[in-house]
Amino acid sequence: MPVRRAFTLIELLVVMGIIGVLMGLAFPTLKMVQASSRPGDWVLDAFAGSGTLGAVAHQLGRRFVLVDRHPEAIRIMRQRLPASTRFIEMPAPGSAS
């Protein structure tokens, strides 16, 4: 029998998020961005996770800033967001720069 690896919590949340988007469950984020901004505006998510707000903002023509310190979340955002997305990595607080 093949060995199966366990999924991380972030991976499970991303899969759930992708399924949610496909099923229209990202609708609350879409409505929030539509109601609170106009095309070309900036939106900010300081705890970005898998990047749902950025994906919705891009879809609606908004610019976005996403912040997250979890390496797995950043890896997922790199895969999920458009290739033209610019990522800026900062050293963790207290680490040598």
Structure notes:
The mean pLDDT is 82. It is globular, with a radius of gyration of 15 Å. The protein has helices at residues 9-22, 27-36, 52-59, 71-80; strands at 42-45, 63-66. 18% of the residues are buried. Strands 1-2 form a two-stranded parallel sheet. The chain has 97 residues and is mainly alpha-helical. It has four helices and two strands.
Please specify the SSE layout and strand pairing.
Layout: H1 9-22, H2 27-36, E1 42-45, H3 52-59, E2 63-66, H4 71-80
Parallel strand pairs: 1-2
Keywords:
2 strands; 43% helix; two-stranded parallel sheet; globular; 97 residues; mainly alpha
Short description:
The chain has 97 residues and is mainly α. The protein contains four helices and two strands; from the N terminus they run ααβαβα.
What is the helix fraction of residues, given as a range? 40-55%
Proportion of residues in β-strands: 5-15%
For the largest sheet, list the strands in their spatial order.
Answer: 1-2
Query: How many beta-strand elements?
Result: 2
Distance between the termini: 46 Å
Mean pLDDT across residues: 82
- What structural class results from the helix and strand content? mainly alpha
**Series of H and E elements:** HHEHEH
Low-confidence stretches: none
Shape: globular
**Major β-sheet, in short?**
2 strands, parallel
Count of DSSP H/I helices: 4
Rg from Cα: 15 Å
